[in-house]
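Q: I'm building a small set of examples for a reading group on sequence design. Run inverse folding on the following structure and report the sequence directly after it, with nothing in between.
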């Protein structure tokens, strides 16, 4: 969206976050079963199953390992994309990698600490 519109990145992030948060709350309100909105917003660390802990640990370890190996490339890419391209890096792929790790980590953390603490 940043490349296709004149909006700034922070405005786009705020728009997307607010839209999807509102859509999620709307979808939860349509569900006939009882869902505690407070659990979605603030999380419930006591309701985590052992499988969820394993999943969080795997995602955390994989994310940290990838970030350790790609840290310098990511820093160059996000600091100066033209320089990264000039030294042979592929900024588009590195951005996709970083934002994929960010999205996976965010979704995994939502169940534990809720939407507000993740953001």
């Amino acid at each position: 969206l940043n490349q296709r519109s004149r909006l700034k990145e922070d405005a786009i992030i705020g728009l997307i976050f607010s839209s999807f948060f509102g859509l999620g709350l709307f979808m939860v309100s349509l569900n006939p079963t009882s869902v505690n909105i407070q659990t979605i917003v603030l999380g419930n660390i006591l309701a985590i199953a052992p499988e969820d802990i394993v999943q969080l640990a795997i995602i955390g370890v994989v994310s940290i390992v990838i970030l350790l190996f790609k840290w310098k490339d990511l820093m160059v890419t996000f600091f100066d994309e033209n320089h990264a391209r000039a030294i042979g890096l592929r900024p588009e792929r590195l951005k996709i990698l970083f934002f994929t790790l960010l999205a996976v980590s965010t979704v995994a953390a939502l169940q534990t600490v809720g939407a507000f603490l993740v953001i």
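The mean pLDDT is 84.
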